[in-house]
Amino acid sequence: MDNNSKENTKVPNLDKSAEIIEGHSEYEADGREVIFDLRNVSYNYPTGPIKEGKPNLVLENINMKIFKGERVVILGPNGGGKTTLLKILDGLIRIKQGQISAFEFDLSKDINNKKKMFKFRRKVGFVFQNPDEELFSSTVYEDIIFGPLYLGLDEDEIKARAEEVIEHRALKK
Ligand SMILES: Nc1ncnc2c1ncn2[C@@H]1O[C@H](COP(=O)(O)OP(=O)(O)OP(=O)(O)O)[C@@H](O)[C@H]1O
Ligand SMILES: [Mg+2]
Questions:
Q1: Ligand nearest to the CA of 75
Q2: CATH assignment of 25-103, among 3.40.50.300, 3.40.50.720, 3.30.460.10, 3.10.20.30
Protein backbone atom coordinates (compact mmCIF):
# COMPACT_ATOMS: atom_id res chain seq x y z
CA MET A 1 0.00 0.00 0.00
CA ASP A 2 1.05 3.57 -0.63
CA ASN A 3 1.53 5.12 2.81
CA ASN A 4 2.01 8.63 1.43
CA SER A 5 -1.50 8.70 0.03
CA LYS A 6 -2.94 8.55 3.55
CA GLU A 7 -1.62 11.98 4.50
CA ASN A 8 -2.54 13.42 1.10
CA THR A 9 -6.11 12.20 1.02
CA LYS A 10 -8.52 15.11 1.27
CA VAL A 11 -11.94 14.48 2.76
CA PRO A 12 -14.53 16.66 0.99
CA ASN A 13 -16.95 18.69 3.03
CA LEU A 14 -20.16 16.78 2.37
CA ASP A 15 -23.61 18.20 2.95
CA LYS A 16 -25.04 16.24 5.87
CA SER A 17 -28.39 18.01 5.96
CA ALA A 18 -29.98 14.79 4.65
CA GLU A 19 -29.96 13.68 8.29
CA ILE A 20 -32.91 15.93 9.05
CA ILE A 21 -35.29 14.16 6.64
CA GLU A 22 -37.47 11.88 8.73
CA GLY A 23 -39.18 8.88 7.21
CA HIS A 24 -41.87 6.38 8.08
CA SER A 25 -42.18 2.64 7.62
CA GLU A 26 -44.92 0.54 6.04
CA TYR A 27 -46.22 -2.56 7.81
CA GLU A 28 -48.31 -5.52 6.70
CA ALA A 29 -51.38 -6.45 8.76
CA ASP A 30 -49.32 -9.31 10.30
CA GLY A 31 -46.71 -6.85 11.56
CA ARG A 32 -43.99 -7.50 9.00
CA GLU A 33 -42.10 -4.37 8.01
CA VAL A 34 -41.98 -3.77 4.28
CA ILE A 35 -38.51 -2.75 3.11
CA PHE A 36 -38.92 -2.93 -0.68
CA ASP A 37 -42.23 -2.72 -2.50
CA LEU A 38 -42.37 -2.98 -6.29
CA ARG A 39 -45.61 -2.40 -8.13
CA ASN A 40 -45.97 -3.16 -11.83
CA VAL A 41 -42.33 -2.43 -12.53
CA SER A 42 -41.26 -2.84 -16.15
CA TYR A 43 -37.91 -1.88 -17.55
CA ASN A 44 -35.98 -1.79 -20.76
CA TYR A 45 -32.53 -0.30 -21.28
CA PRO A 46 -32.55 2.76 -23.56
CA THR A 47 -30.26 0.83 -25.87
CA GLY A 48 -32.14 -2.41 -25.25
CA PRO A 49 -33.54 -4.80 -27.83
CA ILE A 50 -36.57 -3.97 -29.98
CA LYS A 51 -39.04 -6.71 -30.89
CA GLU A 52 -41.77 -6.10 -33.49
CA GLY A 53 -41.27 -2.32 -33.21
CA LYS A 54 -41.60 -2.29 -29.40
CA PRO A 55 -38.98 -2.46 -26.65
CA ASN A 56 -38.37 -6.07 -25.67
CA LEU A 57 -38.67 -5.61 -21.92
CA VAL A 58 -35.96 -6.91 -19.61
CA LEU A 59 -38.44 -6.80 -16.70
CA GLU A 60 -42.19 -6.90 -17.20
CA ASN A 61 -44.80 -6.10 -14.54
CA ILE A 62 -42.79 -7.10 -11.50
CA ASN A 63 -44.78 -7.05 -8.26
CA MET A 64 -42.91 -8.01 -5.12
CA LYS A 65 -42.34 -7.08 -1.51
CA ILE A 66 -39.26 -7.75 0.55
CA PHE A 67 -39.69 -7.68 4.33
CA LYS A 68 -37.28 -6.79 7.08
CA GLY A 69 -35.15 -9.77 8.12
CA GLU A 70 -35.87 -11.75 4.96
CA ARG A 71 -33.14 -13.30 2.87
CA VAL A 72 -34.22 -13.43 -0.74
CA VAL A 73 -32.66 -15.42 -3.57
CA ILE A 74 -33.42 -14.31 -7.12
CA LEU A 75 -33.00 -17.17 -9.58
CA GLY A 76 -33.06 -16.94 -13.35
CA PRO A 77 -31.19 -17.68 -16.56
CA ASN A 78 -28.23 -15.67 -17.85
CA GLY A 79 -29.50 -12.37 -19.13
CA GLY A 80 -32.83 -12.91 -17.38
CA GLY A 81 -32.73 -9.54 -15.60
CA LYS A 82 -31.47 -10.42 -12.08
CA THR A 83 -28.79 -7.73 -12.00
CA THR A 84 -31.15 -5.21 -13.56
CA LEU A 85 -33.71 -5.89 -10.81
CA LEU A 86 -31.03 -5.47 -8.11
CA LYS A 87 -29.88 -2.19 -9.63
CA ILE A 88 -33.48 -0.95 -9.56
CA LEU A 89 -33.80 -1.98 -5.89
CA ASP A 90 -30.56 -0.12 -5.18
CA GLY A 91 -31.57 3.07 -6.97
CA LEU A 92 -28.85 2.71 -9.58
CA ILE A 93 -31.38 2.43 -12.39
CA ARG A 94 -34.34 4.78 -12.65
CA ILE A 95 -37.59 3.15 -13.72
CA LYS A 96 -40.11 4.82 -15.99
CA GLN A 97 -42.90 2.26 -15.62
CA GLY A 98 -44.33 1.22 -12.27
CA GLN A 99 -43.50 2.26 -8.74
CA ILE A 100 -40.91 1.29 -6.22
CA SER A 101 -40.58 2.21 -2.58
CA ALA A 102 -37.64 1.27 -0.41
CA PHE A 103 -37.67 1.98 3.33
CA GLU A 104 -39.33 5.38 3.57
CA PHE A 105 -38.24 6.45 0.09
CA ASP A 106 -40.32 6.54 -3.05
CA LEU A 107 -37.57 5.63 -5.47
CA SER A 108 -39.81 6.36 -8.45
CA LYS A 109 -39.46 10.06 -7.50
CA ASP A 110 -36.73 10.39 -4.87
CA ILE A 111 -34.03 9.08 -7.19
CA ASN A 112 -33.75 12.68 -8.45
CA ASN A 113 -33.48 14.10 -4.94
CA LYS A 114 -29.82 14.29 -3.96
CA LYS A 115 -30.43 14.72 -0.23
CA LYS A 116 -32.84 11.81 -0.01
CA MET A 117 -30.60 9.58 -2.10
CA PHE A 118 -27.65 10.41 0.14
CA LYS A 119 -29.68 9.11 3.08
CA PHE A 120 -30.93 6.11 1.08
CA ARG A 121 -27.38 5.13 0.13
CA ARG A 122 -26.39 5.00 3.78
CA LYS A 123 -28.94 2.17 4.13
CA VAL A 124 -28.61 0.20 0.90
CA GLY A 125 -25.38 -1.04 -0.63
CA PHE A 126 -24.58 -2.92 -3.80
CA VAL A 127 -21.79 -5.41 -4.37
CA PHE A 128 -21.03 -5.64 -8.07
CA GLN A 129 -20.90 -8.97 -9.87
CA ASN A 130 -17.46 -8.17 -11.23
CA PRO A 131 -15.12 -7.16 -8.35
CA ASP A 132 -12.93 -5.20 -10.81
CA GLU A 133 -15.75 -2.66 -11.05
CA GLU A 134 -15.25 -1.85 -7.36
CA LEU A 135 -11.53 -1.16 -7.57
CA PHE A 136 -10.87 2.07 -9.42
CA SER A 137 -8.67 4.28 -7.24
CA SER A 138 -5.00 4.76 -7.82
CA THR A 139 -4.05 3.48 -4.34
CA VAL A 140 -5.31 0.74 -2.04
CA TYR A 141 -5.93 3.30 0.71
CA GLU A 142 -8.19 5.43 -1.52
CA ASP A 143 -10.17 2.34 -2.48
CA ILE A 144 -10.63 1.39 1.18
CA ILE A 145 -11.90 4.82 2.20
CA PHE A 146 -14.17 5.36 -0.80
CA GLY A 147 -17.28 3.94 0.93
CA PRO A 148 -16.87 5.68 4.32
CA LEU A 149 -15.87 8.92 2.56
CA TYR A 150 -19.06 9.08 0.54
CA LEU A 151 -21.16 8.06 3.53
CA GLY A 152 -20.12 11.46 4.84
CA LEU A 153 -18.32 10.15 7.92
CA ASP A 154 -15.91 12.35 9.86
CA GLU A 155 -12.27 12.30 8.83
CA ASP A 156 -11.20 10.66 12.12
CA GLU A 157 -13.83 7.95 11.75
CA ILE A 158 -12.78 7.29 8.14
CA LYS A 159 -9.16 6.91 9.18
CA ALA A 160 -10.08 4.67 12.11
CA ARG A 161 -12.15 2.39 9.85
CA ALA A 162 -9.42 2.27 7.23
CA GLU A 163 -6.84 1.32 9.88
CA GLU A 164 -9.14 -1.43 11.12
CA VAL A 165 -9.57 -2.89 7.63
CA ILE A 166 -5.84 -2.67 6.91
CA GLU A 167 -5.05 -4.42 10.19
CA HIS A 168 -7.79 -7.02 9.84
CA ARG A 169 -6.94 -7.89 6.24
CA ALA A 170 -3.17 -7.79 6.88
CA LEU A 171 -2.67 -5.21 4.14
CA LYS A 172 0.21 -3.45 5.89
CA LYS A 173 3.55 -3.67 4.17
N1 LIG B 1 -26.31 -1.56 -19.67
C2 LIG B 1 -27.09 -2.29 -20.49
N3 LIG B 1 -27.52 -1.80 -21.68
C4 LIG B 1 -28.32 -2.52 -22.51
N5 LIG B 1 -28.72 -3.78 -22.22
C6 LIG B 1 -28.32 -4.32 -21.07
C7 LIG B 1 -27.47 -3.62 -20.13
N8 LIG B 1 -27.23 -4.42 -19.06
C9 LIG B 1 -27.89 -5.55 -19.30
N10 LIG B 1 -28.53 -5.51 -20.49
C11 LIG B 1 -29.38 -6.56 -21.08
O12 LIG B 1 -30.48 -6.75 -20.20
C13 LIG B 1 -30.79 -8.13 -20.08
C14 LIG B 1 -30.76 -8.53 -18.59
O15 LIG B 1 -29.40 -8.43 -18.14
P16 LIG B 1 -29.00 -8.68 -16.64
O17 LIG B 1 -27.56 -8.35 -16.53
O18 LIG B 1 -29.94 -7.96 -15.74
O19 LIG B 1 -29.25 -10.24 -16.48
P20 LIG B 1 -28.77 -11.26 -15.34
O21 LIG B 1 -29.97 -12.10 -15.00
O22 LIG B 1 -28.12 -10.51 -14.23
O23 LIG B 1 -27.69 -12.13 -16.14
P24 LIG B 1 -26.43 -12.96 -15.57
O25 LIG B 1 -26.99 -14.27 -15.05
O26 LIG B 1 -25.58 -13.16 -16.78
O27 LIG B 1 -25.75 -12.16 -14.49
C28 LIG B 1 -29.81 -8.86 -20.97
O29 LIG B 1 -30.45 -9.08 -22.23
C30 LIG B 1 -28.66 -7.90 -21.12
O31 LIG B 1 -28.00 -8.08 -22.36
MG1 LIG C 1 -26.20 -10.59 -13.32
A1: 1
A2: 3.40.50.300
